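Supplementary Methods S3. Input chains for the assembly prediction are listed below.
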Amino acid sequence: MRLSDIILLSLQNLLGNKMRSFLTILGVGVGIGAIIFLVGIGFGVQDLTIKKLTTSSATTSLEVYSGNPDLVKLDSKVVQRISNFPEVEKISASTSLPGQSAYAEVNTETLIKIVDSNYYELNQTKFLAGVKPKAKNEITVSNGLLKLFNISDPQSIIAKEIQLSLFMLQNQSDGKDSYEMKGLVVGVIDNPSQIVEIQDSDFSVSAIDYSRIKIKAKSVSDVAAVQKKVNDLGFEVSSLMEKLNEINRVFKVIQIVLASFGLIALAVAAIGMFNTMTVTLLERTREIGIIRALGARRKEVEKLFIFESGMIGLAGGVMGVILAYILSLFVNVGINLLAKSVGQEGLAIFRLPVSFVGGVIVFSLLVGIITGIYPSLRAARLNPLQALRYE
Amino acid sequence: MKRHPIIEVVKIEKTYDIGQPNEFRALRGVSFKIYAGDFIIILGPSGCGKSTLLHCLAGLEIFDSGEIKIRGEKMSKMNEDSLTSHRRNKIGMVFQQFNLIKNLSVLQNVALPRMLQGKSRVSRISRAKKLLTDFGLGKMFNRIPSELSGGQQQRVAIARALVNAPWILLVDEPTGNLDSKSAKEVMKLIVVLNKKSKRTIVLVTHNPGYLHLASRVIKIQDGKIVK
Ligand SMILES: Nc1ncnc2c1ncn2[C@@H]1O[C@H](COP(=O)(O)OP(=O)(O)OP(=O)(O)O)[C@@H](O)[C@H]1O
Ligand SMILES: [Mg+2]
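Predicted structure tokens for the full assembly:
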């Protein structure tokens, strides 16, 4: 018997019992669909999280904190050493001080950052208006601060002066513990906190140590080396790469948990499928007797059954993909409506990698075949005459 | 020139449910020979073992002792695979119940044994169509068996048994489930197969009215040949 004929006969059988075939396939489809849907949400949320965290250049950056300032100081000498590492492309040091800012009768607590010229680039600062500072007395302010000043149009603060007071944390050589200055606003950055940035390396170097250094490695593969070297200097380093790996690990676990829920659904469907194949076997006992009496080999009867259940598995897998896809459309639309109603931009919470979909369909096919093994062996073992007498 | 039998049955015995209270000796030392071109009618009352005998010839039932030789080849030595191949290639069996597959079309039913032989679609379909047309069923190709009358179904079953050009046609009670008119038509068809197409036929019946058609009659009672 030709393989094509075995396929033909099993297909004919599936089609000859449309309702039952459909229900069985639907059962498998729901199980497979549950797996795909749950894991797809896992993938989608993972994507969202990572997208929020990364931009292409963010993956090559590292942050250095002073760690234990009593032992090792994060000062200009350290910055110099780090910038000499061959893997380092750029480095930016900054320090943050508590302070106050005053503008048009409003006086408010402000975080004052003393930054260098690489700061804006390495932090990928988003400007709402203006440009980065070029001279010592030029500053940028955050839109969070503008809100407190009751300014809604960022453009309107450009070229205005703000009165600043910085509170020194360390004792200065001249004994002063605060510092007053007038800052000329040249840019507005997008940040909800109240921040003022002063670009004045001379000031910061002489007055205080840095609280934070940002490093851009030459490539993603250099990140680990830089991280190790800076660690060896006695500083704490965190890189986005490291965080991403951590996040990805967490999501792997989440996906496995979600997939296990789906697997339970699939197990139920597989039992249903097994049941159907066994009932089919009983119903077709006579037919098996006939084709065996006409000279069909045992192996061929076996293949007929295996192929049939394999087809159910395959069709169930495809149906599962379709079901999960339709469900995901609804969920995405729902989430987007929700996001828009609270003023967020739309987002896709659901993603399915093609390789995963392919894998699940193959898996479903395998489930079908495995489910069919026992009924098919039983069918092949039937004595033709006894099978003919059945009913 | 000495004629060699196609099939030689030597003292075969078959007992059902051996060792159990309902043990039943269905065949008790049956011997006979079948030659090419024979039309043998096996006659006997219900339950005498006719179907059992045919099933043994067809390789569907395993006999306990004795021997059946198919052109010299001993059936007792055949394994499951050889018996399956024997059924597929050498025997055309028409069952007491028609035993057609209910969700295959008439054409597919007739072509099925050729499909089992691995013949191409074109060859099996053309042969099935020719046989069905010869049997007056030219318009029924695409019907399913339940849409045919009993007589028509029996003719489909005979066409199916012939489609592989078997060495011998075994027919079990072909008229048992038919009215007298259909029965006559079917018997006529079988006679033509023997006379015109030179088919070797073994036919089982309990109806003595057909005996005159046979080239040889074997009478069985209680599992033994009585004449
Ligand atoms: N599988 C079986 N198990 C037990 N007994 C059987 C079996 N098959 C047949 N018999 C018995 O063997 C005897 C012969 O059966 P068989 O079917 O050969 O009779 P038959 O001559 O064909 O009868 P009929 O004309 O009614 O078809 C019967 O008594 C029957 O009950
Ligand atoms: Mg009988």
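Chain A is about 55% helix and 20% strand. The pocket of magnesium ion (ligand 2) is lined by residues B 50-51, 96, 172-173 (CB under 6 Å).
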